[in-house]
Design brief:
The protein is an alpha+beta fold. It is 40% helix and 18% strand. It starts with 6 loop residues before the first strand and ends with a helix.
Length: 78
């Protein structure tokens, strides 16, 4: 089974982005549909892979906090 990397290259711009499904129980609170997408701001695959873990950890922490009843970070809901 392949590892989930959450890395996607935008088909038109070529800029890499973080893309992850929002847990179903948070979709109404976050208000972004079913996916959270954040640009990594680079067209370089190696750089995107370097930046990805920090974004993944930050987003997971925000999901965990929201699941525990905490406030939803404005960056996730905007």
């Amino acid at each position: 089974m392949a590892a989930m990397t959450y890395l996607q290259k935008h088909p038109k711009t070529g800029i890499y982005r973080f893309r992850r499904s929002i847990p179903p129980e948070l979709r109404d609170r976050i208000g972004k549909g079913v996916q959270y997408v954040e640009s990594l701001g680079t067209k370089d695959c190696k750089e995107a892979k370097r930046l990805l873990p920090a974004v993944a950890v930050r987003v997971q922490k925000e999901f965990d906090r929201a699941l525990d009843g905490g406030a939803v970070d404005a960056a996730l809901s905007s």
